[in-house]
Design goal:
about 400 residues, alpha+beta, 3 domains, 5-stranded mixed β-sheet, 4-stranded antiparallel β-sheet, about 55% helix, about 15% strand, disordered N terminus, Poly_export_N, HH_AprE-like, signal, polysaccharide transmembrane transporter activity, coiled coil
Length: about 400
Amino acid sequence: MLAMLLTALPAGAAEYKLGPMDKLSIRVVEWQTAEGTFREWPTITGDYTVGPSGSLSLPFAGELQAGGKTTSEIASEIAKNLQQKFGLRDLPEASVEVAEFRPIFVSGDVQTPGKYPYDPGLTVLKAVSLAGGMRRAETGQRFERDFLNARGNYDVLVAERNRLLAKRARLEAELANAQTIKIPKELTDVPDAQKLIDDEAAIMLSRKESLTLQLHALDELKTLYQNEIVSLEKKMVVQNRQKDLMSKELASIGGLADRGLVVNSRVITLETSVADMQSKLLDLDTLSLRAKQEINKAARNATDLENDRKADLANQTQATQAAIDENALKLGMYKNLMTEALVNAPDAGALAASGSEGPVLEYSIVRGGGDDGTKEISADENTPLLPGDLVKVVISNARS
């Protein structure tokens, strides 16, 4: 998921730097070799928010400076701190994902200025749409504003639809155990279709590697118990040979003891030794049975992993298809709204025919946190936004 979010950011923000108000999902797990399972650290696992100073406070790991760092850097620092804190032999596995980016802000001549959540792929036009479009200055601008709002929402839904189609293709490939993901026909003419498929391919590879690791651990566990069974069987052979020898000796002197030719203590000693051998054989047989049970248990766990994976993929496919269907309905609605605006407003019609925006909207972005401090840069509708940006919108009276 983190790979999908980061690659959806602008090219200059591929390595996303964390900042205040970013919400992070942190998970720490440790591999238990003897048990063949992963053990999660529930005390640390959870959601955390980067503080105003850029710091991140975690149980045991302490207070870390997250501002200006990537998620991979923070994950590495958490793992090292925990290893030093508890004197662990192996480095635990820590994963850090951005659960929610810090918000963006929209101000100026918009219907509802304020704070809005950031999503990858957010542009100035989409942010203005989230803020209700341009401020209603006069009645004549209503249809133009409605057209801009509908077009912004339509663009957002188109991007969402493309991501859903790529996700569905990935789920279908996983269900079919395919090595690659086929580009859906609906995305054939989409410029960034290959990028969407590459993002989903990275997710598929990560999930496959995780499943392979768990299955490999179960195979190692079965091999361990199989070797134990072989060792127990060798011991049983030796024990049986010793028991047979003692039984023969006991049988040979049994008659002599009845006639008083051999002392009874010798017979009693042999009988006790034979009984001990039989007891040890039973113990070895019990250990062998337990090892076989553990092998069967590991085999069932491997089957359960495969079955759970297939069930999860089926559920995700069903949910994704439902989201695609819902998205199609919304796209149709906003397309009708744009058509209505074009029919009812000559200015909106001219806007669509000539590319004119009617009242001129001037945009700028106030961006901070870099080496140059806070700065204001000019922007247009398609300028991509970064988390924490402030979008300023000004309506000019000039018309084209």
